[in-house]
Design a protein that fits this description.
Shape: elongated
Radius of gyration: 37 Å
Helix content: 40-55%
CATH superfamily of the largest domain: P-loop containing nucleotide triphosphate hydrolases
CATH architecture of the largest domain: 3-Layer(aba) Sandwich
Strand order of the largest sheet: 13-23-24-25-21-26-27
CATH class of the largest domain: Alpha Beta
Distance between the termini: 69 Å
Number of domains: 6
């Protein structure tokens, strides 16, 4: 905006625009939807953005002699346009007229009633019923982080704290719609959240311990946070307090449904880092046509169940007892098909109970949604009865925590009609017999003509004026009309008030007629006022039941997940796994749960056995051709373990699994170009994270480690990693190691707990058939050219590749005769016991060692490094 324009804005403004700019100054970062009559209008830069996003006309408005851009839409189109603005990444402040226009006031009072952001929406058009809509806050003190998640649409409020790796994992798991943080930490937080999330920064003072603790205590009306189990989660409390402040600053003040806060106990769940969640495609596929695991497992029929299933997939259990409890109920419903179907039929009628109860708190629940709440609560007794008719103890225990909430059901049934309109403003919501005055007014509206006729007949009978008529005009309303004939006869009573004289008649009003007129003309408006008040009182009376209904929603979600897993197990022929405290993984005829569901017609998935433990087969070195199924075997093993620990049956003929505490994967290839990291650098970062966090109960999947660099470098890194996993003094993590480097088969000759396996093939002439069966022993052929041929590579390219391969193999053979092949040379490498190059009597080597020991690489610039290398080179030449 130019300086001249600013001056005009300051000194030449209409009263309306002055009010607009005052309101806009309070919400500079939001699109301000300014209610003007029947329209929401935007001005200036907001108007240009809105017109562009919504595709509406950009026009102008006079502002005290100068024009200002204007774009607006009818108020009843808000539901259409608001979701588009939010999805486009805008914050939207809705400014309403807070009073009715009148001739006495030049301008009506206005105020912002709501600020909507991606993380603070309860609009169904913006929400995915299968996913939570989390707002996330991150607090940082040096290398310690606190994090909090709030779903305003359900009231779920959870916190945690830890190092950056832990925070990254939580963000990947919960996928917040919006992240808030202190502006001073912007660079650090954006470095690991990337561009995938909508972010908004706040002032530093908001993220202070005293301020946050006070906010939490005030909100929950408690003296101490010990009752929530978060007393020691100091950094997490700060993040949670920042969320409460953010809610207040965005006019979100109706928060009775946020009545609890809990700690995310990550030590109760299998550790899945963000790479593993991505690589195993648990909830999202890495490919446009791919299918994530959750799509196979989620057969829930309620939105709450679907949201809980996602959490179960991302947070598999560590407690063997808790796993067994889930498995026992899944087993029950798998065997008791009829009971499972009955439960499913009840659950289908419940709807999104969790979000319905949140709408009670915010006062945004519609009449039809109240009836849905009544319908949902009507199913609770049926669900309770079904569960208690079994001898399944865990199931009975779950059902016992359900609350019937009879008062809620009865109040809604009594006060709301069976099929109400979608909005209270349309009227006709409240049942007959609830309010005496309301019934009377409705009777007046419905029978106004007959009531007027009764007055006409009564007055005609009393006065003897046989042709008495009742009429209406806009000047003085209803009237009695008497012709001059009867007027002259003196039949008009003295208590009638004359209002108008016509040529042949006179018009009168009476007290009775005026009272009826007042009722008739004001009835519609008064009916709406009374209905709205009754409706608001009803909603207010339900506040005390919010925690009980929320508890019901959680129990129903759990039952929904368990019946879903039973249904999936029955449909896909899954077996019940045995999960214990051993250190072995023994899977018979394991299958990939996703791939087997999407085989070509006529094909069937080839199952495979996998056995891993810490004493006999700690590391399976799997070789085999491209496209033979090595990666599928790795992934299916991990998915079977995760499914078992979330309480699901698994795709196998049998599975005995010692529970895992961590699962790591390094599969696939991806660049992080925006951060300047190559495929190989990403691979090494992910692998380093694995090596630094292994445990005895870890399962590690390594697929083609080292392929992003030269052959010798790649083999060396892969070899060294295998040795480290075998020889490190901390633990013996179970590992599946798929590789093209056939030289790694030599490791099995040296180490007892490393076993060679390969995926079998069959060669018939020039054709190769992939049998996809895992067999003992290594493989020495990759069939890369054959795979290129299958992909449709031109024949000339294939033929030339075969010629080059023969030539290279011949040269390799000649070189091997004189120098020994790489496998032979690797045989001469002693692993952990190899002497260092510095442990010699060579004085030059000693000098090099001394020089290197003095180097602090963390303080060196690239130029310093080059100079130091040059110095070391000169030392070698001396």
């Amino acid at each position: 905006m130019t300086k001249t324009a600013k001056v005009k804005k300051q000194h030449k403004q209409t009263p309306l625009m002055k009010q607009y700019f005052a309101m806009k100054a309070k919400y500079p970062d939001a699109i301000l939807l300014f209610r003007v009559g029947d329209f929401y209008e935007t001005f200036g830069e907001d108007a240009e953005k809105v017109a562009n996003v919504l595709g509406i006309i950009l026009t102008k408005r006079n502002n005290g002699g100068s024009d200002i851009p204007l774009a607006g839409f009818p108020y009843h189109s808000l539901d259409l346009y608001l979701p588009r603005l939010i999805k486009a990444g805008f914050r939207v402040a809705i400014c309403e007229q807070l009073e009715k226009p009148s001739k006495e006031k030049k301008i009506v009072k206005r105020g912002v009633t709501e600020v909507i952001t991606p993380g603070l929406t309860v609009d169904e058009k913006l929400l995915d019923h299968k996913n939570n809509n989390f707002l996330c806050a991150i607090h940082r003190i040096n290398e310690k982080f606190g994090i909090a998640f709030l779903d305003l649409s359900t009231g779920e409020f959870i916190i945690s704290q830890g190092n950056q790796l832990r925070i990254e994992k939580l963000i990947q798991s919960f996928q917040p719609s919006e992240i808030i943080f202190a502006k001073s930490h912007k660079d650090r937080i954006e470095s690991f959240t990337g561009s995938d999330f909508y972010k908004y920064h706040l002032d530093e003072w908001i993220f202070s311990t005293d301020f946050a603790t006070e906010k939490l205590r005030d909100h929950f009306k408690v003296q101490s946070l010990k009752g929530f189990g978060i007393e020691e989660v100091h950094e997490g409390q700060v993040a949670a307090g920042a969320i409460l402040h953010y809610l207040e600053s965005t006019e979100n003040t109706k928060l009775d449904h946020i009545n609890s806060i809990s700690r995310i106990q990550l030590d109760e769940y299998v550790w899945l880092d963000r790479f593993t969640i991505r690589n195993l495609e648990l909830v999202h596929s890495n490919h446009p046509t791919g299918i994530p695991l959750i799509q196979i497992l989620d057969k829930t029929v309620s939105p709450m169940g679907s949201r809980m299933m996602r959490k179960w997939v991302l947070l598999p259990l560590l407690s063997v007892q808790a796993i067994h409890q889930r498995l026992s109920i899944v087993d029950f419903f798998k065997e008791q098909v009829e009971k499972g179907e009955r439960l499913r039929s009840y659950l289908e009628q419940i709807g999104d109970l969790e979000r319905l109860v949140a709408k009670i708190s915010t006062g945004k629940i519609a009449p039809r949604e109240l009836k849905q709440l009544e319908s949902a609560l009507n199913q609770i007794p049926h669900i309770n009865e079904l569960c208690n008719q079994t001898d399944q103890e865990t199931l009975c225990e779950i059902a016992s925590s359900l609350s019937y909430c009879e008062q809620v059901r009865d109040a809604i049934a009594e006060q709301i009609i069976i099929d109400p309109p979608s909005m209270i403003s349309k009227g006709g919501v409240i049942s007959e017999g609830v309010h005496e005055e309301l019934d009377d007014l409705r009777h007046v509206v419905k029978n106004s003509k007959s009531l007027l006729a009764e007055i006409q007949e009564s007055e005609a009978e009393k006065t003897g004026i046989t042709n008495l008529k009742i009429g209406f005009n806009n000047v003085f309303g209803y009237y009695l009309e008497v012709t001059n004939k009867y007027k002259n006869q003196g039949l008009v009573p003295e208590n009638w008030v004359r209002k108008q004289t016509l040529t042949g008649s006179e018009r009168y009003i009476t007290d009775e007629l005026k009272k009826l007129e007042t009722k008739i003309l004001g009835a519609e408006e008064k009916i709406l006022v009374i209905e709205e008040q009754i409706y608001l009182d009803l909603i207010a009376s339900l506040f005390d039941y919010i925690p009980a209904i929320q508890k019901n929603a959680q129990v129903i979600a759990k039952l929904d997940c368990l019946q879903s897993l039973a249904l999936v197990a029955e449909e896909n022929n899954y077996c019940k796994p045995i999960v214990d405290e051993s250190f072995s993984i023994d899977i018979k005829d394991g299958r990939h749960p996703v791939i087997e569901k999407h085989m070509e017609i006529g094909e069937s998935y080839v199952p495979n056995d996998v056995f891993l433990d810490t004493k006999e087969t700690q590391i399976m070195m799997i070789t085999g051709p491209n496209m033979s199924g090595k990666s599928a075997i790795l992934r299916q093993t991990a998915l079977i373990c995760l499914m078992a620990q979330m309480g699901s049956f698994v795709p196998a003929s049998s599975a005995r699994l010692g529970f895992l505490d961590k699962l790591f994967t390094r599969v696939g290839a991806s660049d992080n170009i925006s951060s300047g990291e190559s495929t190989f650098m990403v691979e090494m970062n992910e692998t380093a994270s694995i090596m630094n966090n292994i445990s005895d109960r870890s399962l590690i999947l390594l697929d083609e480690i080292g392929r992003g660099t030269s052959t010798y470098d790649g083999i060396s890194i892969a070899w060294s990693l295998a040795e480290y996993l075998y020889n490190n003094q901390k633990c013996c993590p179970k590992t599946l190691f798929a590789t093209h480097y056939h030289e790694l088969n030599k490791l099995a000759d040296r180490y007892d707990r490393i076993k060679n396996y390969s995926v079998s093939t069959k060669e018939i002439g020039q054709k190769v058939i992939f049998l996809r069966k895992l067999i003992p022993g290594g493989s020495n052929h990759s069939f890369g050219i054959h795979v290129a041929q299958m992909a449709g590579m031109p024949r000339s390219v294939i033929a030339r590749a075969q010629e080059i391969l023969l030539e290279l193999e011949q040269k390799s053979f000649e070189a091997a005769k004189t120098q020994g092949d790489i496998s032979s040379r690797l045989d001469n490498v002693s692993s952990a016991m190899q002497l260092s190059i510095f442990e010699t009597v060579d004085p030059t080597a000693g000098k090099l060692k001394a020089a290197l020991m003095e180097v602090d690489i963390h303080r060196m610039t690239p130029i310093d490094c080059m100079m130091k290398l040059n110095e070391l080179k000169k030392m070698m030449e001396e």
